[in-house]
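step=encode ok
step=design start
structure_in=
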């Protein structure tokens, strides 16, 4: 058995046949027999293609952005590199290939060589050479194909370098048994979507996985962040048993999911769902969630030319209020970072996660904020159900931002009852001044996905440093504790809606730190409720004290793993 180890991104065991996805995948040109081609003609065709690509790259080097110009200058150097030329020449003259096949094979060999060094710099060069190869192959008449994500056969283990959210939403959980990504991180939005679809996913597995042969059997171990190939029958049966055990425990949890999650000492912990789109809102009641604790409203704003109108949003929210049980928390548009909305975030920023994101953008574009608030307020006022609507502000980092939003909201007509207004605690400064923020708002919701990347200075979309952005690191835990202490002082509820809320191992610790509500990825809700029913809050507090004293996230995990 060969094992590739990366990071845990979505739980579960996936078993199936490998399909490798490369956007704009090149169909290898038909091999030709030596007798059928004239090597001189093929070499001339290659040189003509090389000259055309060179002219194209020369133009690209004139780009005013010096970074872009530098990249294409490096591509020009590669285009004339003797190793590449020798390889293509040998493929044509010695192996009798036509120009397209000779180039395809030479590029594939070079890419493999670069990725074999297991070094980020060389991995980058592999992607450059692939890009250059595509330019040459287009000119040599090679065909491109796309693996159709929407119609993958049942029982597919999908391997890809990365998948963006729109590619992920084309996948059907009934057909895709698991996903293995060469890059990406557990808190990237692709992983968040995989979790919400219930597809096991391991990420940051390295570029070697892209060369695994399609069709062979593979296993994704979403609990360990691993991909296995070449398993013998006994190993396969072992994974099949674990898969069945997990499915059985999930099914048992679903049976009781609608009942409230009450700890052994009698405290009810609302467990809500994170929803990324209307389908997930509708599904929240099915998995027994006590409402939606985080509606990522970004989906409404993407893939269109202008923001949705107030009427459009009002109808959407009214529909959601009729579907969810007990509570709907709509997060105001959190554009920017890894969630661009092209008509708002058109400026390219060097560090988008530290840029004009979330509430900062909304303060610049107050109409978006006010329209969204008003639409929810009107939908709530018109709703016949007793579901409560709450409004939540993303990426708060200062008191001034809250005060500014309150001033903006005070300009709205006063004919309808105000919504309960909360803030995400996902920037370290907000946790550190939680005692000042708590009296100003109605609730907190801790966003550990962002909080961990900001506390540990590791970009949540960068697989090289993803291991560092650990939400269970004691530094993050201390900020969670500070936030909960402030909420308790002012008697305000404090939810936690980062992905860690869906990890049963973490739940006792989060409750011990003082979190009073959870909002988890949809499929995790039943198991989280089941876990809460086994807990005693005094034990949880003891565990939290021990975790806070640990020197690292790893030690915290060891502590949580103890029976
Ligand atoms: C978070 O940051 O933890 C969070 C829930 O928000 P998002 O993942 O959408 O940034
Ligand atoms: Mg966030």
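sequence_out=
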């Amino acid at each position: 058995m060969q094992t590739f180890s990366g990071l845990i991104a979505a739980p579960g065991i996936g078993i199936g046949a490998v399909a490798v996805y490369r956007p704009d995948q090149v169909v290898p040109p038909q091999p030709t027999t030596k007798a059928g081609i004239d090597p001189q003609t093929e070499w001339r065709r290659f040189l003509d293609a090389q000259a055309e690509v060179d002219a194209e790259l020369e133009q690209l080097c004139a780009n005013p952005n010096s970074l872009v110009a530098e990249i294409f200058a490096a591509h020009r150097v590669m285009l004339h590199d003797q190793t590449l030329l020798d390889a293509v020449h040998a493929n044509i003259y010695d192996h009798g290939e036509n120009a397209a096949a000779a180039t395809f094979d030479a590029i594939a060999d070079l890419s493999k060589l670069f990725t074999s060094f297991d070094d980020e710099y060389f991995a980058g060069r592999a992607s450059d050479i692939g890009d250059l190869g595509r330019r040459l192959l287009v000119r040599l008449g090679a065909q491109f194909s796309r693996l159709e994500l929407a119609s993958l056969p049942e029982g597919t283990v999908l391997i890809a370098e990365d998948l963006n959210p729109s590619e992920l939403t084309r996948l059907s959980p009934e057909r895709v048994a698991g996903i293995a990504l060469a890059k990406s991180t557990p808190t990237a939005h692709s992983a968040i979507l995989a979790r919400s679809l219930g597809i096991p996913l391991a990420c940051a597995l390295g570029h070697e996985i892209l060369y695994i042969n399609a069709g062979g059997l593979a296993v994704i171990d979403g609990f360990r962040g691993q991909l296995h190939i070449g398993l013998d029958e006994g190993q396969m049966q072992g994974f099949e048993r674990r898969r069945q055990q997990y499915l059985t425990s999930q099914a048992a949890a679903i049976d009781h999911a609608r009942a409230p999650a009450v700890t052994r000492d009698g405290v009810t912990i609302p467990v809500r769902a994170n929803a990324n789109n209307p389908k997930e809102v509708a599904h929240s009641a099915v998995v027994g969630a006590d409402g939606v604790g985080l509606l990522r409203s970004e989906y409404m704003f993407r893939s269109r030319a202008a923001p949705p109108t107030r009427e459009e949003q009002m109808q959407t929210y009214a529909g959601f209020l009729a579907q969810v049980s007990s509570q709907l928390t709509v997060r105001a548009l959190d554009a920017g970072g890894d969630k661009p909305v092209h008509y708002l975030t058109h400026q390219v920023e060097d560090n988008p996660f530290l840029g004009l994101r979330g509430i900062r953008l909304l303060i610049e574009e107050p109409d978006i904020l006010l329209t969204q608030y008003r639409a929810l307020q009107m939908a709530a006022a018109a709703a016949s159900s007793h579901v409560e609507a709450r409004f939540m502000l993303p990426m708060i980092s200062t008191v001034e931002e809250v005060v500014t939003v309150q001033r903006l909201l005070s300009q709205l007509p006063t004919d309808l009852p105000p919504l309960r207004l909360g803030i995400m605690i996902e920037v370290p400064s907000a946790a550190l001044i939680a005692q000042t923020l708590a009296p100003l708002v109605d609730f907190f919701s801790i966003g550990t996905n962002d909080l961990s990347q900001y506390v540990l200075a590791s970009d949540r979309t960068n697989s090289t440093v993803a291991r560092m952005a650990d939400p269970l690191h004691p530094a993050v835990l201390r900020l969670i504790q500070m936030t909960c202490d402030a909420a308790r002082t002012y008697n305000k509820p404090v939810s936690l809606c980062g992905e860690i809320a869906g990890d049963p191992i973490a739940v006792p610790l989060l409750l011990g730190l003082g979190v009073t509500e959870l909002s988890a990825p949809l499929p995790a809700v039943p198991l989280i409720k089941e876990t809460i029913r086994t807990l005693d809050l005094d034990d949880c507090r003891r565990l939290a004290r021990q975790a806070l004293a640990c020197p690292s996230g790893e030690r915290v995990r060891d502590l949580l793993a103890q029976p």
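step=design ok
step=annotate ok -> The chain has 22 helices and 18 strands.
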